[in-house]
Amino acid sequence: MKTSIRLAVIYGSTRKGRICERVVKWLTQEIARFPQFDIDIIDPLEFALPPSRETAHPEIDRLAARLGMADAFIIVTPEYNHSFTAALKSTIDLFFEPWQGKPVAFVCYGGISGGLRAVEQLRLVFAELHAVTIRDSVSFSAPWSRFDTAGRLHDPSDALHALDRMMARLEWWTRALIAARNDRPYADIAA
Questions:
Q1: Partner of 106 for a Cys bridge, out of 92, 137, 144, 169, CB 3.0 to 4.6 A?
Q2: What whole-number distance in Å separates Cα of residue 179 and Cα of residue 31?
Q3: Residue spans of beta strands (DSSP E) within 60-171
Q4: Where is the signal peptide (predicted)?
Q5: Are 139 and 114 in contact (CB under 8 A)?
């Protein structure tokens, strides 16, 4: 029997009235179809993070513990001005070790590009953090007209197909990287 994968789903927006709420609701409802994943939803708004990186802060420690327990991540990100949000960058930049040697997948949304420009920039950030990004993602253009307030998606067939493919590849990479980290912890690799 395979062990469960601890999957952290991270909100990429902290704006009031954020569409991210709807997208995360849809995503978590759909991830329930994949019982091999145990989901931990991480919303930066649930943490009283300091405005600057402090070495000793209880909220940073609390978030670090949650990220550190994850075997894999899904970032749910909007695209603002052809990029991802400052709040997401701040959350990512608080840490280095929790991302190392772990896979990161993306569910994105935005205007005509569906958030893909934000994802392309996030791939560069996570490469620097020694994380492995999953090539396949789920993208929603004009999400304000595709989701209702309960997170139900109108005409979900394409999104479900993309999600199934992304989750299969996320599971493969997660299991491969868990085995690699168990064989040799990533922190033991010489710089």
A1: 137
A2: 23
A3: 72-78, 103-110, 132-133, 138-141
A4: none
A5: yes
Decide if 100 contacts 145 (C-beta within 8 A): no
Domains of the chain and any CATH numbers? 5-188 (3.40.50.360)
Helix, strand, coil percent content, the chain, rounded in steps of 5 = 45, 20, 35
Q: Average pLDDT per run of 10 along the chain, which is 191 residues long?
A: 91 94 96 97 92 79 96 97 94 93 98 96 98 98 90 92 98 98 88 60
**Please, are residues 41 and 24 in contact by the beta-carbon 8 Å criterion?**
yes
Chain centroid, CA 187 distance in Å: 22
From the number of C-beta atoms within 10 Å of its C-beta (0-12, 13-18, 19+), residue 37 rates as buried
